[in-house]
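Page 47, continued from p. 46.
Same chain as before, 201 aa.
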Amino acid sequence: MKFKELVQNGYPFERYDSIIQKTISIRHVSMKEDLRRLYLWMHEKHVIPFWNLDIPLENYKTHLQKFLQDDHQTLLIGELDGVPMSYWESYWVKDDIIGNHYSFDEYDQGIHLLIGPREFLGRGLIYPLLMTVLYKNFQIAETNKIVAEPDIRNEKMIYVFKKCGFQPIKEVKLPDKTGLLMAYERKVFERRWTDWQTNKF
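Result:
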């Protein structure tokens, strides 16, 4: 089975989170259904500085088509109670530029994310969403580490990753930003996932 198929086969996925009392669902990005939505999200003031994709619709359509055809990553939409509100890129480190910056294992995964609509910001929702996506990523038995490389200016996202258990490794120079390489070990996730489910966090 190809790397991309390992991730794709896990979606769509849905679970009720008793802590936030909402149904979290994660599905694949659809060009027909999500192009306009993602285009608008990329033009939100809180997204522009860190994604740099506030470009004309036709240019963004080309970008999205390219990303959907890229075998090293899977594009996802996160929903709360059926309302699309977040975008996720789950990727394999071995085929990504971040793999040039640390000694990775073959099944290491990486993640990018954003919350689109402003009304979902600052409500404590990103933690359960991120934990849910990480839960799905760690269902691939061979994966023992997940990395992130948020923009060093994005203090809120760095805080969220740390809250989930990601550990800062080092700053890395990437083509579009200076990122903070962060790593998350399976054993740390499993403990935090159990704590979250039992409301001990």
